[in-house]
Write a structure and sequence with these properties.
heterodimer; B: 203 residues; two-stranded antiparallel ribbon
Chain lengths: 251, 203
């Protein structure tokens, strides 16, 4: 991980700032915590709550860190390329990001899907990768380094982030309020903590998914909102007697 | 024309009356566990319970739905999960159903599962669960009567101790003192809850 960080730092030093390296390291750290002992190992077959922690890290923390680690000077030349340009622009469509993320979240919490994929390492990897990809597509329209990709204006970004918190309510509600454990993977696993039943573990998973999972989204919401408000203070729209003007609110 | 109609109705009802059933008429079809055919009679044995008093299995469980399981407290996976799932399912059911069910756990490791150890372990799941500690011969004979393999001691690969190979299923006796169904490892809590309602309604 350290080696990757050094390599990335040297690579982007010419094209970006030290903060890009920092975001890259944070993305790596998030993914490492999500996939390695104890979170990854326990979440893979013992505790639903730890799998929920992996979800938050892989879908909602690592992707924005990864995006923030890419300098604009790397994205701009890519946008001019015949293949990457259209792909990067298309990935900035807000409806694509929302629909893929929502679909991934809903599908990767269906009991039949979880129980059939989690029995194998490849299946677990499919779930983890889908979370990362879904997370990148979710955050790309909001924070892509190039403005021609992140085309949503600030009010739309705020609305977009708010809507992104709605779909996870469905699986988290089932996890929290179901009368019996939903996933055989965790129900039939040996108990790691004897005082934590499978049902309680599932309830904790639901709460982590919704409450902790919403924090990165609301953090992004707050950053965008306060930047927008600050911009409004620094550059108030000109006022003329009898004329009402509107601020554009673009990022 | 009334008689032919009645005869026709009786002929149509005949297949319904011919559903396969155990000797008591209880039909285990639709239950989550595999069916035992023909049903097994309740074994006749007596072993000391965790309070030191003798427990006559047939006599003490007469009139109850009885879940009989052979396991040991050092079991890393099957035993705690089976007991936890039965306990969790019972906790979602009415007091009437709980009062109609007895869970009997017979240890296959009498050397380590002393009465206090077994009692403390069972209490983690349900203080009402009955723990029996017996000699290997009685346990083996009872297992044989239930068509179970006898428990077998196996050294652990790292040499740190031993495990006990044992049958992983729960034998469910209805009030007719017959086991119509067994519940292997892997039965979910929701299935236990549904089946216990059916088993306690059986004659």
């Amino acid at each position: 991980m350290a080696a990757l960080g050094v390599w990335y730092g040297r690579t982007v030093r010419r094209m970006g700032r030290w903060s890009h390296t920092l975001w890259f390291l944070l993305a790596l750290l998030s993914m490492w915590i999500a996939l390695d002992w104890p979170v990854g190992a326990l979440g893979a077959g013992y505790l639903a709550s730890f799998h929920a922690i992996s979800y938050v890290l892989l879908a909602l923390i690592a992707p924005p860190c990864l995006i923030l680690s890419v300098p604009e000077s790397v994205v701009r030349p890519a946008l001019a390329r015949p293949y990457w340009g259209p792909v990067l622009r298309y990935a900035g469509r807000w409806w694509l990001g929302l629909s893929v993320f929502d679909g991934v979240v809903l599908l990767t919490h269906v009991p039949a899907v979880v129980d059939s994929l989690m029995v194998s390492q490849v299946g677990a990897l499919v779930i983890d990768l889908s979370w990362v990809v879904g997370g990148v597509l979710l955050w790309w329209p909001v924070m892509a380094p190039a403005p021609e990709v992140a085309t949503l204006n600030r009010p739309m970004k705020l609305a977009y982030l708010f809507v992104s918190t709605l779909a996870p309510i469905i699986p988290s509600a089932f996890l929290t309020f179901a009368p019996y454990p939903l996933y055989a993977t965790y129900e039939l696993a040996p108990r790691i903590f004897s005082r934590l039943t499978a049902q309680q573990d599932q309830q904790v998973a639901g709460l982590i998914m919704k409450i902790i999972g919403d924090l990165p989204v609301w953090a992004g919401f707050g950053v965008i909102f306060f930047r927008w408000a600050r911009e409004g203070e620094l550059h108030p729209p000109p006022s003329y007697p009898g004329v009402v003007t509107r601020a554009t609110g673009n990022s | 024309m009334r008689l032919p109609t009645l005869l026709l109705a009786a002929l149509c009802a005949l297949p319904l009356a011919c559903k396969p059933a155990g000797a008591s008429g209880f039909n285990p079809d639709g239950l989550a566990g595999p069916r035992i055919d023909p049903p097994l009679p309740k074994p006749d044995f007596a072993l000391p319970a965790t309070d030191g008093k003798p427990f006559d299995f047939r006599k003490e469980t007469e009139g109850y739905v009885t879940l009989l399981f052979f396991g040991y407290t050092h079991c890393p996976d099957v035993c705690p999960v089976q007991m936890a799932n039965v306990s969790a399912a019972l906790s979602t059911l009415s007091p009437e159903i709980n009062n109609a069910v007895k869970v009997v756990f017979v240890t296959t490791d009498p050397e380590r599962d002393t009465p206090p150890v077994l009692r403390a372990w069972l209490n983690k799941f349900d203080p009402q669960f009955i723990g029996l500690i017996g000699d290997s011969a009685t346990v083996a004979r009872t297992s044989h009567a239930l068509h179970m393999p006898p428990p077998e001691r196996e050294a652990l690969p790292d040499g740190s101790g031993y495990g006990i190979g044992h049958a992983a299923f729960v034998v469910a006796f209805t009030r007719d003192n017959l086991a119509h169904v067994v519940y292997p490892f892997g039965i979910r809590q929701a299935d236990w809850a549904r089946d216990l309602k059916i088993l306690t309604r059986a004659p």
